[in-house]
Design goal:
Blueprint: H1 4-22, H2 28-39, H3 44-51, H4 63-79, H5 85-103, E1 119-120, E2 125-126, H6 140-162
Antiparallel strand pairs: 1-2
Helix pairs in contact: 1-2, 1-5, 2-5, 2-6, 4-5
Length: about 170
């Protein structure tokens, strides 16, 4: 199961690959949306944590979420009359898709076609019996700290990008 850093690195590699293939340079804000998209699907941990329900690797790990997030960013920046709204929408969707692909490498996989209960992973495609939440284990305090750490990391990434103090 990949964690936040691996998701960020995979999105960074995808962005660098795009730059090399297209012989272009992505803007700081495009990088921001790409990297933020790579950790955004794990926001469902916050729902698990606060409401004590198990939804991890469902809605936010689906193709539907990648499309909805991209469409939301596109509409937001279109309303703000920003010229790069298509690039930002594509970047956040690509970031989400890198996350989704990495999570498919481990069991039990993800609900790629949410709301279908069918789980997809590299080793199988099938339905799963309900599993206990990770938050029911003794790791709960450490997991809460890890989620808090990811939140601080995402906030710091936004701050650096907005201040244009980060170069990719």
């Amino acid at each position: 199961m990949p964690f936040g850093f691996v998701h960020l690195i995979s999105a960074w590699l995808a962005g660098k690959g795009y730059e090399i293939i297209k012989k272009t340079i992505l803007s700081n804000y495009t990088w921001l949306f790409l990297l933020f998209g790579s950790i955004l699907p794990d926001i469902d941990h916050l729902v698990d944590w606060t409401l004590n329900i198990q939804i991890h690797r469902s809605f936010t790990h689906s193709l539907f979420f990648a499309v909805i997030a991209g469409l939301g960013i596109y509409l937001l920046f279109k309303l703000l009359k920003h010229q790069e709204c298509t690039k930002y929408a594509f970047a956040i969707s690509c970031g989400i898709l890198t996350h989704v692909l990495l999570d498919m490498l481990s069991y039990p996989g993800i609900q790629l076609l949410w709301p279908s209960q069918l789980h997809f992973s590299i080793t199988h495609i099938g339905y799963l019996a309900p599993q206990p939440s990770l938050f029911d284990l003794d790791l709960q305090p450490l997991l809460k700290l890890a989620i808090f750490d990811m939140g601080i990391g995402a906030a710091w990434l936004f701050y650096l990008a907005l201040r244009k103090r980060i170069k990719f």
